[in-house]
Amino acid sequence: MHNNRGYHQEVMFIEQMCSVHNRGADRAHIGTKLWDPNIDYTLMAKAYGLYAEGPISDPQQLSPALKRAIERVKNGEPALVDVVTQPR
Prior knowledge:
Largest sheet: 3 strands, parallel
Strand content: 15-25%
Structural class: alpha/beta
Shape: elongated
Number of strands: 3
Distance between the termini: 15 Å
Mean pLDDT: 91
Order of helices and strands: EHHEHE
Radius of gyration: 17 Å
């Protein structure tokens, strides 16, 4: 999954509206960013019986994780790979 830890299209809209209305954007993250704490999607997927890995933030770990997940999918199992990406 593409985990950018937020609803960043919404953040950009709110920041734009703050600018239009001459208000500070220092609270634009409230209700739109999913951190503090970060959501553990891997743990959630495992609770449903899925194969899951992550969160992966090191690009060197991505290829091996995808290969393991693909093998699971080839065997008929669902799999989730949580990949942390840049917010924008």
